[in-house]
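haha ok so turns out i had the wrong file open the whole time. this is the CORRECT one, sorry everyone. sequence first:
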Amino acid sequence: MSHPNQLALPVAVARWVDQSQQLPDHIAIERLGEKLAFVTEAIDVLASDADDVPSELDGLSVIDLMSASATLAVEIGTRRRHAEISKRMLERAA
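then structure:
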């Protein structure tokens, strides 16, 4: 049976991405970047084989976190690209 955190992580990532859709690109990139930093730190903790793993990470594997990291990185890249295109379109219109 899966640990509750294994089920909660993908839901949390989906919620973060969904909530970011309603924000301007630069704010969404910043907030998703903060979430990505948290996930990256969590990967480092689990990869270090530390004995004192925080309870928030119970039941998660490095693979679970890498999947979350990839999802966030793709969304950040997409939003950056969207911001670049929007900026160019505004410059051309001016």
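The helical segments are 4-20, 25-47, 62-93.
again sry for the mixup
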